[in-house]
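Quick one from the shared queue. A colleague (R.T.) flagged SseB family protein as missing a structural entry in our internal table.

Convert sequence to structure tokens.
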Amino acid sequence: MTEQTVSPDDAPLNDLEAQLALAEQPDANPVDVILAFLNNEVFLISAEAVEGPESSVEPLVLSNAEGQPVLAVFSHPSRVDTRFLEAAPYVLGTMGSAVLGNIGDELGMVINPGSAYGFEIDPEGISNIRRDFKRADEAGQPAE
């Protein structure tokens, strides 16, 4: 397979994707990408529909190149490949901060698997983000 190039059809669809596109630049600031992820809506896919606000979700988990489990997260519903929708046809929107707040300690995350606007974060990286970034409504509060 040849290297991926971004065609006009693959232009960034939102702020998160714009930051992901800039992440490849030599002077890119990774903090901007993390903040865009935390503060924007992202999408999970699930084999089951969500029936109400109290229902739980079992989102699609893939294996990375090392065989480790990674949560599949998408920056836009159109970035979900049809092969994933065969296994998990329900697309669910949530905030990136909610995803990081609820992901387990042993699970990594892959954003837009197979897409030009994608990257992977291992469990340690997720833990570091949770430690270093607080929600705006938590930032001024003293630690308990």
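The domain at 12-132 is CATH 3.40.1350.90 (Trna Endonuclease; Chain: A, domain 1).
Helices lie at 15-22, 30-38, 82-87, 96-102, 123-132.
Added to the table.
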